[in-house]
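Reviewer 2 asked us to include a model.

Predict the structure of this chain.
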Amino acid sequence: MTRDPSRRATARDVAQLAEVSVATVSLIANGKAAGRVTPETERRVREAIRTLDYRINTTASALAQGRRDTVAFVSPDPGNPFFSLVLDGLASTLDPSLSLTILWPRSDDYDLVTVQRALAGDLAGLVLASPGSELLDTISPTCPTILLESGETRPGMSSMDLDVEAAGTGLADHLVGLGHSRVAYLGVSRDKSTLHHRRDALHRQLQARGAAITVPDELVERMTTASALERALAVLPSWIERGVTAVVCGDDLLAYGVLEASARLGISVPQQLSVAGFNNLPFSSMVSPSLTSVDLSARELGASAARALTEMLVGADAPAPTTLRTHIVARESTARARS
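Predicted model (structure tokens):
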């Protein structure tokens, strides 16, 4: 490994030399390796520390002494299991010396006031899940900050997004392969780049395959099954009359509402109408019919945030923007298009 000798060694340098993770270096350097790291790994890390003359930076030292040891997780939609899965990945991977505080909004989404409340706590780190574009333009983080599923980047913050283009490709391949050419989209009306990107990627990929979203989008105000149910009851009959054979929803919670509306209206899924969603929530394999959905790697998103935050807290620069893989999980709710 080549390193500029005039630059102070970082935990990342030690990790590369010892061939371990930055989190492992953090545990050993802060005296928290007992029972968590093998003796051989600890030996390699300590040898790398001596070789590079690595010294813990002030942030890591403060963490080891019990100061600024709290990470805040802020997310919208407290009732959405997707964010619970993200939180599970974050909590299970975060350095055990850190505590985790969760801030839920009082409404469906959070705003600048919620973020300011979090920052008032003298945090070691901040994780913002699915922040809106306007919010990102107004916040000034005072600690290492991770943006999850924002669809955007900001200077000084680490961004982790989902491969929505691959998600759109997977869904388009699946639906067109089943003979669907006239598709409808039901989403939520919200200032979220990631939600817009999902729909746009799907539309591009459908068009590239000779299919399309052929009716105006239906956007509900709330990311709830009840909101989707009410809207679907109103629009499904006209969609069927206009030749729509598949409905894609911006979230599985919305797709559940479409499934219920179809049952109430006597529209058979998937014989008359195929339905698919995004997020692959745990209930999607249990509803009837089971829901075809794009898996957005919720737990891995949270775990990646924890690893990035650990690197930043021990002195590394904000990691480069990361894009996580997505994949479609085909289930009973999609089948060949009706003739």
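Residues 62-66 have pLDDT under 50 and may be disordered. The longest helix spans residues 225-241. We have added this to the supplementary material.
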